[in-house]
């Protein structure tokens, strides 16, 4: 991963995160010391639309919060605080 990060001129953590996401979505698979390979069914797994999924998840959460009485402003502030906390961790 270090070599790829150097070749792409990006942080090692960026490459590691990309690998984790690709592995999560069954696009690649890690075989320990033998390396990382394209998953045999990678093509079928590439149909996942992360943006649609994120929008669905956020819509559900926002609806739940609004039903609980939270205002748009309160939701926005809480989201930004949660995002800031996640970025620090």
UniProtKB/TrEMBL annotation:
<dbReference type="InterPro" id="IPR000524">
    <property type="entry name" value="Tscrpt_reg_HTH_GntR"/>
</dbReference>
<keyword id="KW-0804">Transcription</keyword>
<dbReference type="Pfam" id="PF00392">
    <property type="entry name" value="GntR"/>
</dbReference>
<feature type="domain" description="HTH gntR-type">
    <location>
        <begin position="2"/>
        <end position="38"/>
    </location>
</feature>
<keyword id="KW-0238">DNA-binding</keyword>
<dbReference type="InterPro" id="IPR036388">
    <property type="entry name" value="WH-like_DNA-bd_sf"/>
</dbReference>
<protein>
    <submittedName>
        <fullName>GntR family transcriptional regulator</fullName>
    </submittedName>
</protein>
<dbReference type="InterPro" id="IPR036390">
    <property type="entry name" value="WH_DNA-bd_sf"/>
</dbReference>
<keyword id="KW-0805">Transcription regulation</keyword>
């Amino acid at each position: 991963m270090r070599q790829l990060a150097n070749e792409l001129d990006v942080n090692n953590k960026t490459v590691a995160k990309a690998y984790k996401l690709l592995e999560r979505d069954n696009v690649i698979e890690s075989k320990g010391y033998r390396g990382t390979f394209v998953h045999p069914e990678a093509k079928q797994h590439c149909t996942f639309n992360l943006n649609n999924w994120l929008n669905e998840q956020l819509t559900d959460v926002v609806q739940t919060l609004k039903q609980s009485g939270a205002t748009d402003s309160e939701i926005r502030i809480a989201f930004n605080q949660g995002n800031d906390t996640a970025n620090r961790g």
